[in-house]
């Protein structure tokens, strides 16, 4: 990791309400951890990407969530050079190693998602997933919805930062050992109001 501090603005689960986010704070890197659509349509995805690309941040990263089904198996062309779509892939920005794992239901109902988590590089500094790790900002309706396999992988690689969403009720930031965990869900649990984005400095 670089010696200079970096400000990360983390959002997730905007569900096609992204254009209502008109006063986002400044940051070095903006990250969206999935569910930018509501119904998974191509039109919703295009509108989000147009909005995301136009935002005035030096670097921007996004991944897909379980709602963003139209992008399953897709390759996205034409993004600005400072905008990165991560799909079981990584990028290095200013010496920081990012890696993103989406949450497509086609993978979750097979063993592919387990393989995706196992493939996260051990030198990852910032891990971006849509699913939470088990037991960390993942509790809703008396259940933990996070992944035990993801938690095990995080304990192995010890990223500095793990960004996710999915469980709207558990929006927040938690530090546990060497890792800062951020649930960036913007829409609240009943989709009637907005949570504040998470601004994290490391």
Q: How many DSSP helices?
A: 4
Helix content: 10-25%
Look at the structure and name the CATH superfamily.
Answer: Metallo-dependent phosphatases
Mean pLDDT: 96
Percentage of residues in DSSP E strands? 25-35%
**What is the number of beta strands?**
13
Determine the CATH topology: Purple Acid Phosphatase, chain A, domain 2
CATH architecture name: 4-Layer Sandwich
Instruction: Please report the distance between the alpha carbons of the first and last residues.
Output: 9 Å
Number of domains: 1
What is the C-alpha radius of gyration, as a whole number of Å? Answer: 15 Å
Protein name: Metallophosphoesterase
Pfam families: Metallophos
Domain Calcineurin-like phosphoesterase: 7-169
GO molecular function: hydrolase activity
Could you characterize what this model shows?
The chain is built from four helices and 13 strands. It is α/β, with parallel strands linked by helices. The protein has a single domain, classed as Purple Acid Phosphatase, chain A, domain 2 (4-Layer Sandwich). It holds the Pfam family Metallophos.
């Amino acid at each position: 990791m670089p010696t200079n501090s970096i400000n990360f603005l983390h959002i997730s689960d905007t569900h096609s309400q992204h254009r209502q986010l008109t006063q986002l704070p400044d940051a070095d890197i903006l990250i969206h951890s999935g569910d930018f659509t509501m119904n998974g349509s191509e039109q919703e995805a295009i509108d989000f990407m147009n909005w995301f690309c136009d935002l005035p941040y030096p670097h921007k990263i996004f991944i897909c969530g379980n709602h963003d089904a139209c992008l399953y198996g897709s390759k996205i062309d034409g993004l600005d050079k400072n905008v990165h779509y991560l799909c079981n892939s990584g990028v290095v920005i200013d010496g920081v190693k990012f890696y993103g794992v989406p949450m497509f239901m086609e993978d979750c109902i097979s063993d592919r998602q387990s393989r995706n988590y196992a493939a996260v590089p051990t030198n990852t500094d910032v891990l971006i997933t849509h699913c939470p790790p088990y037991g960390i900002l993942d509790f809703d309706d008396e259940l933990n919805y996070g992944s035990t396999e993801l938690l095990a992988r995080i304990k192995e690689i010890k990223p500095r930062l793990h960004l996710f969403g999915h469980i709207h009720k558990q929006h927040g930031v938690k530090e546990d050992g060497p890792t800062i965990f951020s649930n960036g869900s913007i829409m609240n649990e009943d989709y009637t109001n907005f949570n504040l984005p998470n601004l994290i400095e490391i």
